[in-house]
Structures are given as structure tokens and as C-alpha cells.
Amino acid sequence: MEATLKAIAEPRRRHILSLVRDEELSAGQIAAHFEVTRPAVSQHLTVLKEAGLVSERRDGTRRLYRARPEGLVELQSYLEGFWAERLTALKREAEQEERGRHGRHR
After folding, report:
1. What are residue 86's DSSP bridge partners?
2. What tens-digit pLDDT sequence spans the chain (106 residues)?
3. 50 and 21 within one domain
4. Total domain count, the chain
5. What is the rounded CA–CA span in Å between residue 96 and residue 26?
6. What predicted TM-score, i.e. pTM, was given to this entire model?
7. What range does the domain containing 47 cover?
8. By the 8 A CB rule, do 54 and 67 touch?
9. Helix (H/G/I), strand (E/B), else coil: 36
10. End-to-end Cα separation, the chain, in angstroms
11. Is the domain of 16 the same as that of 38?
12. 48 — phi, psi (to 5°)?
């Protein structure tokens, strides 16, 4: 999960993930969306690939990239667990407050 968090902490990498979320793009097509060098985009793609967030497929001399949603499963599970715990605690507090109000009005 740490590699995933580090990978998505950088705004350009999040942008790359959005670009390849629904379609496979070549490194050149991805680089066209940024005002940085192609080697810089390649470095971002390497970080995303090593974190398991994108897959790379070779087609002749081109490298094609696509998002791997399963790479976010561990992070998603962690965040959902965090919110589930917080929502359960909030529900408990609301129910206690409600019981307290009904107890005072009797």
C-alpha cells in the first residue's frame, strides 16, 4: 500500500491514471498531455507500473499502458475500513443522543 500511496501522491501520476483508466495509450500519447520531457513521463509510468497501478504491453516498438484498478484494492479496502469504523462510531453517538433526548422528555 505504501508504494501505491507514494505513486498517487504526485499529481502528474494521478493524471496519467485518469488518462489510461478507460483506454490503453502509448507512452507518446500520454506524454502529449504534459509539458514535461518524455523521459520524465517514462519515470512516472515506471513508478506507476512498479506500484501495480498500470500494466505495460509492448506492441512492436511502442509501449502501451492501461490502468490496473486491482492495484488500488488494498488502498480502497483500507479507506473503506477507516470510514466504516468512523460511521459506526457516529451512528452510536447519534443513537445515544437520541436516547438521551427521549429520556429527558418523559
Report:
1. none
2. 899 999 999 999 999 999 999 999 999 999 999 999 999 999 999 999 999 999 999 999 999 999 999 998 988 888 888 777 888 888 888 888 888 877 655 5
3. yes
4. 2
5. 56
6. 0.75
7. 2-69
8. yes
9. coil
10. 52
11. yes
12. -65, -40
